[in-house]
Amino acid sequence: MELKEIKELIKLVSESGVSEVEVERGDFKLAIKKTDEKTMVVHQTAPSLVQAAPIVQAAPAPVAPAVQTEKIESHHTESSSHLITIKSPMIGTYYKSSSPDKPPFVQVGDEIKVGQVLCIVEAMKLFNEIESEVSGKIVKILVDNASPIEYDQALFLVEPK
What we know:
2 domains; 4-stranded antiparallel β-sheet; 161 residues; CATH 2.40.50.100; alpha+beta
């Protein structure tokens, strides 16, 4: 198909009420589509054959013995089974103190009571105090200061009283 013929088809589409024209001649394909007040020309020829590269499979990675992993996991669950996890009630940014120059609300080893403020979670420029719902001793703080946290993410491990 020559350029003159393509220009005539474009003019026909833009002047008439037709919104789309497709022309196929052997391995040549031309599609003209009218969108809003512009006319688009989409030119496509027959696809050429591409030879695929041979697929090479890698040898599987060696697997560590499962027995050792199970021992470690069961030991961890036995030691932390009595602990209570305090989780975040919202998405936001975790802060351990009310400002950078103030001491943290709680540290590992601190005794906490029900209603005591544990941290602040900033969500959409609002600073929300997170209070404890249990009494006990802080065993581990699971997040870093000024880090983003998700809803229901574990924040503290507490040994209940």
